[in-house]
UniProtKB/TrEMBL annotation:
The keyword Signal applies. The keyword Signal applies. This is ABC transporter substrate-binding protein. Pfam families: SBP_bac_1 (PF01547). Gene3D superfamilies: Periplasmic binding protein-like II (3.40.190.10).
C-alpha cells in the first residue's frame, strides 16, 4: 500500500523568522513521497526557539534519516519555556509514549533523573567523543542523561584598549583584577558591566566554588554538601564578601537598587556599555558573542575569569541537552535516531553563527576558525572549570546565587547571604529526599 512519509515540525521550531508559538501545540507539515508498509511514529519535544544546530541543517538531517530508514515518522512539537515547556515535558514523560526524544532545560534534569526517566546514553559512540567538561556535565549520578549538542562557556570580555590608556594589563589572577578595578574607578570609569544575571552570579560562583572543583577529593566534598555535613555558605562567603566590596566601591556603578538591576536584561545595556568603553570588563557566555566584536584583538579579547589566587577559571554549561525517554516503547528506534543525529556533527553545526562551542573532541592539530574561539578552547583544554549547575548537587547554585546577590544590592550583608544559602541548601536537600522517597528511590543516584 502506498503511503506518504510525513515529517511533522513546528513552524516556530524550524522557521526562525516566524512569530513564536504559544502553549497551544500546532504543527505544519513537510511531506515527501515514499513507499512505506509500516511506519513508527517517534515524538520529539523541544522548547520554542531552541537551536538544534540551525534550522536548515536539522531539517535536512531529519529528512535524510527518514530516507535511509523509511519506516520512521518523526513528529517535532514545541512549547516556549515561558508558556510552560517544563510542565508539558513532565506530563509527557509521565504519560506512556507521549514523548520519545526530548530536549531538557537544566531546571528539570534533577527531577527527571530522580524518577528514572532518562535512558542512559553512555553506550553511544558520540558520548565517548565528548570533551571532558561536556562528558562531566552530561552525567547525573551514574547516568549519561544527555548527548550535548552545544556548549556555552562563561568567560570574561576585556576592553584591552581601555586598559592600555591607564597602563594596565589583562588580569591573570584575582589580585590583578582588583588592581585594575581600583585604578579604573579612580579615573571615574565603572570597571564592570552590570546585568540581572551573569554579571553577578558568574564572578561570585567562580570566587566561591573553585576550592571545591579544584580539590582532589571533589567527589567527597560534593557528597558532604549533599548530606548537609558541609555548608555551602562556608564556600560562598568568599564570593559574597567580594561582591559586597564591589558594591561598596562602585565597581558596578552607583545608586543601584534591586528593582533597577533586576530590570537590566543580559546582553543589552551591559554589552553596549562595554563596546562603548564605558566599562572595561563584562562576564558573559561565549555563545552570546558576535564575531564582529572580536575582529580587532587590540580592542577586546576573551579570557578566563580571574578569580583564582594564581590564575583564571571558566564556567562551562551544556546549552542544548538531547535526551531519550527511558520508558519509551520505541526505545531502539529513538536511540538509532539520536545516534545518527549526534554523529553528523559538522552538518549539525554548519549553520550556527553564534559563539557556541562544539561539545565534541577535536584533533589536536585542529584550530578554531576565529582566534577568540581558539583562545576559549585552549582555556577549556587547560582545565580550571566550575560547572554552571552541578547536576549531582541536591540543591541549586546558579539561580540561588543570583537571588542572593540581588538581596545584597538591597542591603543584605555577605554573612547573612551565606547563612541564607545554608538554609536554602538544607531546605532543598530535604525536598529532594522527600521526593525521592515518594518516587520509591528511583533515579540515577
Amino acid at each position: 500500500m502506498r503511503k506518504r512519509l510525513v515529517i511533522l515540525a513546528l513552524i516556530c521550531v524550524l522557521t526562525a523568522s516566524l512569530p513564536a508559538c504559544g502553549s497551544q501545540e500546532t504543527s505544519s507539515t513537510i511531506t515527501i513521497d515514499e513507499k512505506v508498509d509500516e511506519s513508527v511514529a517517534l515524538s520529539m519535544f523541544v522548547p520554542v526557539g531552541v537551536d538544534l544546530g540551525g534550522t536548515d541543517s536539522f531539517r535536512d538531517l531529519t529528512l535524510a534519516y527518514n530516507k535511509q530508514d523509511s519506516k520512521i515518522r518523526i513528529t517535532v512539537d514545541s512549547v516556549s519555556t515561558a508558556d510552560g515547556f517544563d510542565d508539558f515535558l513532565e506530563k509527557r514523560l509521565d504519560t506512556k509514549d507521549a514523548v520519545d526524544i526530548f530536549v531538557v532545560n537544566a531546571e528539570n534534569v534533577k527531577d527527571i533523573a530522580q524518577k528514572g526517566q532518562f535512558y542512559d546514553l553512555s553506550g553511544l559512540k558520540s558520548f565517548h567523543e565528548l570533551t571532558k567538561s561536556a562528558k562531566e556535565q552530561a552525567m547525573v549520578g551514574d547516568i549519561a542523561y544527555s548527548i550535548p549538542l552545544k556548549m556555552a562557556v562563561y568567560v570574561m570580555d576585556v576592553n584591552v584598549s581601555l586598559l592600555k590608556q591607564y597602563d594596565l594589563e589583562v588580569p591573570e589572577n584575582y589580585e590583578d583584577f582588583l588592581h585594575c578595578c581600583q585604578v579604573l574607578k579612580k579615573q571615574n570609569i565603572t570597571p564592570i558591566s552590570l546585568n540581572r544575571w551573569w554579571a553577578m552570579a558568574v564572578p561570585v560562583m567562580a570566587r566561591s566554588l573553585y576550592p571545591i572543583y579544584q580539590a582532589e577529593n571533589q567527589r567527597q566534598l560534593i557528597d558532604g554538601l549533599n548530606k548537609g555535613d558541609l555548608k555551602i555558605g562556608d564556600y560562598m562567603i568568599n564570593g559574597f564578601r567580594m561582591f559586597e566590596e564591589f558594591l561598596k566601591n562602585g565597581y558596578y556603578g552607583e545608586g543601584l537598587t534591586m528593582e533597577k538591576v533586576d530590570a537590566i536584561k543580559a546582553n543589552t545595556q551591559d554589552r553596549a556599555d562595554f563596546l562603548s568603553s564605558k566599562t572595561a570588563f563584562r562576564f558573559f557566555p561565549i555563545e552570546e558573542l558576535k564575531a564582529t566584536e572580536m575582529e580587532n584583538e587590540d580592542k577586546a579579547i576573551c579570557t578566563g575569569i580571574p578569580m583564582l589566587p594564581d590564575g583564571v577559571i571558566t564556567l562551562p554549561s551544556i546549552s542544548v541537552r538531547l535526551c531519550v525517554n527511558g520508558g519509551s516503547s520505541h526505545l531502539e528506534d529513538s536511540i538509532k535516531f539520536v545516534d545518527y543525529l549526534t554523529s553528523q556533527r559538522e552538518e549539525l553545526l554548519s549553520s550556527d553563527t553564534s559563539g557556541s562551542l562544539s561539545p565534541f573532541k577535536r584533533p589536536a592539530e585542529t584550530k578554531a576558525e576565529v582566534p577568540w574561539k581558539q583562545a576559549v578552547l585552549e582555556l577549556l583544554d587547560g582545565g580550571g572549570q566550575i560547572p554552571l549547575e552541578d547536576m549531582n548537587l541536591r540543591f541549586g547554585c546558579w539561580d540561588n546565587t543570583r537571588q542572593l546577590c540581588l538581596k545584597m544590592i538591597g542591603g543584605m550583608s555577605a554573612e547573612d547571604a551565606a547563612k541564607e544559602f545554608n538554609r536554602i541548601q538544607m531546605e532543598e536537600i530535604q525536598a529532594y529526599e522527600e521526593k525521592q522517597a515518594l518516587e520509591g528511590g528511583a533515579g540515577g543516584e
